[in-house]
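During the reporting period the student researcher (J.K.) took over the structure-prediction task from the postdoctoral fellow and processed the backlog of single-chain submissions. One of the processed entries is reproduced below for the supervisory committee.
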Amino acid sequence: MRRRLPGATRGATVVELPAGTPPRRADARRNISAIVEAATRCLAEDPGVSMSAIATAAGVGRMTLYGHFESRSALVAVVVEHALDRAEAELSAVDVTGDPYDAMTRLLDASWTVTFRNGGLVQAADQALSPDLLERAHTQLVDRAKSVLRRGRSEGRFRKDMPLDWQVTAVQSLLHGAATAVHQGALTAARAPGLVTTSALALLAVPPAPSSGP
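J.K. obtained the following structure tokens:
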């Protein structure tokens, strides 16, 4: 069981703490929420961001930050857990029923939002977290995409002349590549989701039958 630590303000981060964690004072809860929110933003933009930079972004001192999170790995773990919980809620809400093409479009739209928001969190997780948590981070989209793809392939809506795992890998690469391009300024955030969806669906589309000639 885990105990929810509410943020101090409406809309603030809600951090999950292990059961048995002593109750925190209101100012401590505010600091923890501010740190997790700041770390989420900073790590999404720069997976190598320092603890000092995170403390500055959160408006707290290094002593305060380390008083709540004994190491960078401990902080990254909490940030990623929070990001995974939020992503799971958003992706679970996507309607993947009905026409597989339309379902994939909705899933791509939601996946773009999650991928762009989290940015460098995956890379930070790769450097700091356990294999179990990394596996959870990588399978959220994969399991849903595979389900829609299998149905679309069986119904003739998606091509079957390439491995399903390769199709999933290609879609993930488009999502992460677009997010990187936006963070680097090579692509606007407004244009990216449309390009991702159009490119992914073009990749998955059943190729036209070869012409039989005149």
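The committee noted the following: The domain at 80-204 is CATH 1.10.357.10 (Tetracycline Repressor; domain 2).
J.K. will present the remaining backlog at the next meeting.
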